[in-house]
Design brief:
single chain, transmembrane helix, 5-stranded mixed barrel, 4 iron, 4 sulfur cluster binding
């Protein structure tokens, strides 16, 4: 089937969120070919497809990077807004929506396995993301509806038509999706904010460029509005995401420092909401190193940056067409470490790139040994179809695997967190660990800290004492929870002090304390401390303590959106005490109704029993 161009009147400018054009005007469709299997055709005519649109259940699976995760959250938000139910259960779903990644072969293989499983289950299927966008003629995508990476704001239309039995493909568009679309966050405290799509590079191994295309940046004003909105929603971490953060704005006459300073100005002065800058390649931040370092020193910005080097050999970097040298990577790392206290840097390495000699690999090993970075993502080279590197002579797989194991062994021998024991750190807590017993927080340098505490601590900041260190994270003891008096700008209709203003009131020469605040600004009026009670319930021990508490939690958790988009400001959010919400008016009315129903039933049963007894006499 030919790709369907965006047919909206006005050059693809889009429609207001929540508005659907008639299908004939908005989406080109065609019935599925008669040559498809009868079994699959019959599944499209099942009773589930005859339901009222917007009442079906959707299974959504996401592969890949944080940008893909953000796209999935936007698609989930739109589907939920139109009444669709989202589920992690494949069997109960009426349709599967798979958001794909094309960076590595294993992720695409996992997608192909899932597509086969979906067809075997006779479920309607929609595929989104980089794989269909970059490989639209892939055999596995025959007969499948497709949503392109810049068409996520039309996922509802595609889902509706697919449930009717049509194959729909939306791949071409010249405008970026709006940032204010409905969104269901995987973690309600974390907003993944795409600042641009595509990149300016032409790496010989990269398939993502085929999917995301050339650089396209959102305007500074639109990103500022989004940050202002999510802060008011109660978000505590904002992750800037893109294929290359450092290239931001070069297509619209802006740059990364301009954007960062504008966003920081919107963050609360107490550091209750933190900004994390996304992955950036060396070429596009070299000219802005000092400005970026200044931003990274701000109390509301994590002192962390992901800077991929990919190889320690200039010869291999040239073959990769990475447009920088090892020396320029060193300059980025050395400058940031020198100018930003506690700076943490992550990097990427590709082992076994075509043409990599033993000497080239040894240079890579020596680079990693020299810097002993706390995070190194090591990958074996995977040739991606359609890329120049796929046509290069490959290194034997046994050599590639050996090099990958050797570098991994070197990296795992590092002990980056030794010496942190006994230190007092401020952390921001946003998640529950997979063991169900610890909360996950991060320091100003984005070092993961695991602590024991109640679920009510999610979305808060706390002072902790580091008690022990592991290879990948550290463990801490909560000393006190930091509470804030910051209120929403929108609700108060007035300006509040922001992160940039706090920084300006402090001397640039002032020392930075463990909590990330300059020492002469540590006693701000916006931050209060609450002593931590050690015997608070742990996350896995917060259970149904009584019938009423259980019912109240069930009422809270039965939202169609699973409360992912219902984050409240800290001053508006009901306080938690041992895992049970304090009672507000609605809770009291509910309790009154329960008690009234109980006494009514008892009265009726008593009356019936009394009547039976009197009839016997």
């Amino acid at each position: 089937m030919e790709d369907i161009e965006d047919l909206l009147v006005g050059g693809g400018g889009g429609v207001p969120p929540g508005f659907r054009l008639p299908v004939t005007a908005a989406v080109g469709v065609k019935p599925r070919s008669k040559s498809r299997s009868t079994v699959f055709q019959d599944s499209l005519k099942s009773p589930s497809s005859a339901k009222i649109p917007g009442t079906q259940t959707i299974y959504l699976k996401t592969f890949g990077c944080s940008h893909n995760q953000s796209d999935s959250e936007y698609m989930a938000g739109q589907l939920s807004a139109f009444g669709y139910n989202l589920s992690d259960n494949q069997d109960e779903a009426d349709l599967w929506l798979i958001n794909t990644c094309t960076v590595k072969a294993p992720s695409q293989s996992a997608m192909e396995t899932l597509i086969t499983k979906c067809r075997d289950a006779q479920k309607p299927l929609v595929v989104a993301g980089c794989v269909p966008q970059g490989s639209r003629d892939l055999k596995e995508l025959e007969g499948v509806s497709i949503v392109g990476v810049q068409q996520i704001d039309r996922v509802v239309e595609v889902v509706e038509e697919t449930l009717k039995g049509y194959e729909v493909r939306l791949l071409t568009r010249k405008t970026l999706p709006a940032l204010d679309l409905p969104k269901v966050r995987k973690n309600k405290f974390v907003e993944i904010l795409p600042i641009n799509v595509g990149c300016l590079g032409a790496c010989t191994y990269c398939k993502t460029k085929h999917a995301r295309g050339h650089l396209g940046s959102y305007t500074v004003d639109s990103l500022v509005r989004r940050v202002r909105a999510v802060v008011a929603d109660g978000v505590k971490e904002i992750w800037l995401s893109s294929e290359d953060t450092g290239a931001y704005g070069r297509d619209i006459g802006a740059n990364l420092p301009i954007l960062l300073n504008a966003l920081v100005a919107e963050l609360p002065s107490d550091g209750s909401t933190m900004l994390r800058i996304g992955m950036t390649n060396p070429p596009y931040i070299l000219e802005h190193l000092k400005e970026i370092a200044e931003v990274l020193r701000r109390p509301c910005v994590y002192s962390f940056l992901h800077v991929p080097v990919q190889s320690g050999s200039d010869a291999i970097l040239s073959t990769m067409n990475r447009e920088y040298t090892v020396g320029e990577f060193r300059k980025v790392v050395d400058t940031l470490i020198e100018l930003v206290p506690g700076m943490q840097i992550a990097t990427d390495i590709i082992c076994g790139f075509p043409g990599e000699t033993d000497e080239d690999f040894e240079e890579t090993v020596n680079l990693i040994k020299e810097y002993k970075l706390p995070q190194v993502h090591i990958s074996q080279f995977y040739p991606r179809p359609g890329t120049p590197a796929a046509r290069m002579k490959k290194i034997p797989s046994n050599i590639v695997k050996r090099r990958s194991r050797e570098l991994t062994t070197v990296f795992e021998s590092f002990t980056p967190y030794v010496g942190m024991e006994g230190k007092i750190e401020r952390i921001w807590i946003t998640d529950i660990a997979t063991d169900g017993s610890h909360l996950v927080g991060h320091t100003k340098g984005y070092i993961q800290v695991l602590v024991v505490g109640s679920a009510s601590m999610l979305g808060t900041s706390a002072m902790v004492k580091i008690t022990s260190v592991g290879r990948w994270s550290v463990f801490g003891e909560v000393l006190e929870i930091l509470t804030t008096n910051v209120t929403s700008r929108v609700n108060q209709n007035q300006e509040i002090s922001n992160c940039s203003n706090l920084n300006e009131t402090c001397s640039k020469e002032s020392e930075t304390c463990a909590c990330g605040l300059p020492s002469n600004c540590e006693h701000t009026d916006d931050v209060k401390t609450v002593p931590f009670t050690p015997n608070e319930k742990e996350p896995d021990k917060v259970r149904n303590q009584d019938l009423v508490g259980w019912l109240l939690r069930k009422r809270k958790n039965n939202s169609p959106l699973n409360n992912e988009n219902e984050a409240l400001e800290s001053d508006e959010k009901p306080r938690l005490r041992d895992g049970v919400h304090e009672w507000v008016l609605v809770d009291k009315v509910l309790l009154f109704g329960i008690l009234l129903s109980f006494f009514t039933i008892v009265s009726v049963m008593f009356y019936l029993g009394y009547r039976d007894v009197t009839h016997q006499f």
